[in-house]
Amino acid sequence: MTSLEERWRGVLDGMAEAARKAGRENGSVRLVAVSKFHPASAIAELCRLGQKDFGENYIQEARAKQEELSDLDIRWHAIGPVQTNKAKDVAGRFALLHTLDRAELARAIARRLPEGGAQDELVQVNIGEEPQKSGVRPADLAGLFEELLAQGLISAEGAGLRVRGLMCLPPRCGEGEAARPYFIRLRELRDEMERRFGLDLPELSMGMSGDYREAIEEGATIVRVGTEIFGPRPVKV
Ligand SMILES: *Cc1c(COP(=O)(O)O)cnc(C)c1O
Fold it and tell me: Is residue 215 lining ligand 1, measured as CB closer than 6 Å?
């Protein structure tokens, strides 16, 4: 049986190989280990080996793990949809929120930030335009940036909400290669938003267990990998 450590090292090797293939510097891509449904003990084990970034989908589960592991130096990432009434549980409590997709949520988070506090975030794009998925549609992305800027909700630096880039979750298509066009599209959208609004949007959060190599080849700076590291997720009861 392969151990957690071996699987984790396998992903780091796969990332390094993809970066090399793309002529990118190894270390230019961050691994977020997606630990949803997995026990805090598995997070602690990886943390001791040097994995510092962990991603959780459900705010309640994340907050419980944050409490349980409060003595560890972990950067928590919120990667699931956030209801507006949960903004208080997100604001200032995650190193990065990957799923900002509407001005209403941005307003709610900004209101909950402590004086002078900041929250880094990514705008989630519904890149496959799937009706059931959250994220702003590509055609509405510029409109969202306009709204956020007009309301003074985002700034490139300093306090408040800091939009650092874009995130996507492409349609489930099995093969990694099938996701590549979506990754290219997200990168193009990022370039477009940077030009149009004069913003610096360095981060692209894209790529999961089945397609992180292709995502890195197309410019991902953050990959979110769960199953390849932790194995299949336990069924939630
Ligand atoms: C669950 C999840 C992942 C990890 O998926 P795996 O296929 O297990 O690697 C990544 N991103 C998001 C948004 C997720 O919900």
Answer: no
- Mean pLDDT score, 87-112: 96
Does residue 132 lie within any of the structural domains?
yes
Spacing, Cα 116 to ligand 1 middle (Å):
32
In-domain check, residue 138? yes
CB of 209 closer than 6 angstroms to any ligand 1 atom: yes
Q: Which domain holds residue 134?
A: 3-230
Q: Which two tokens stand for residue 159?
A: 């306090």
- Is the pLDDT at 195 greater than 60? The verdict is yes
In a domain, 235, yes or no: no
The total domain count for the chain is 1
Q: What number is the average pLDDT over the span 92-119?
A: 94
CB-ligand 1 contact for 97 (6 Å cutoff): no
The answer to whether the pTM exceeds 0.90 is: yes
Return d(Cα 89, Cα 102) in angstroms, integer.
Answer: 17
Q: Comparing C-alpha atoms, which of 167, 218, 225 is closest to residue 18?
A: 218
